[in-house]
Amino acid sequence: MQIYEHHVIFDEITYDREELKDWYKSVEQYKVDFATLTNKISSSGLSHNKKFSSNKQFQTLDTENQIGIPISDYKQIRCLIEKFNFETPLNKFDVDVLIYEPKYYFAPHVDFHMHCGIMFPILPDTGMAPIDFYRLPSGATWGKAKTYITNFERDHIYSYHYSLDHPSMFNGETIHGVRNNNNTRVFLRFKILHMTFQQVIDAGNQGKLFQKLF
Fold first, then answer.
1. Which of 17, 75, 107, 135 is the most buried (most CB within 10 A)?
2. Which residue range forms the structural domain that includes residue 198?
3. What are residue 98's DSSP bridge partners?
4. Which residues, other chains included, contact 136 with Cβ-Cβ below 8 Å and sequence gap of 6+?
């Protein structure tokens, strides 16, 4: 593991991005509005009342409702899930795809249920916008499921340009956002709801995080 202040690179795992690209192209027609699908899932089982606002620039895949196959059931995805050894296994709601259209601005925020996210970049091949990490803005109070009005020069800590060879994890409890450029940005995401950023790192250091199958 390469451990940084707010992100980790899991260099124990190398993934085939070309295989993920081919898979994504085969299911790209099942794109839906991220907010609509997430609000539907949230109302059926999550414990907060936060509602996402629809934005055509932020999409996801809904293969389960359209063709009856959750993303987690595809063999290309299942083989990546099985490289990890979480005490609480990922379920189908913990695996999704994030699609940021060109120029989409994902405002700085803190996640609610998700302590951290493991990310597998799919697109673009070059010029992928990084994730930005921020310190708490002056006068603001920290909170989950909260969006912050930041001053980039004042509040920005650092930006991470994702590895295209290894999955990376970011801390969802740090203020973070994305300023997308002219590319469509597509990521496979594993949502980690039952372990904090530090607990995942500790499991890796203790030799408990990865399956012994590779």
1. 17
2. 2-205
3. 187
4. 142, 148, 155, 175
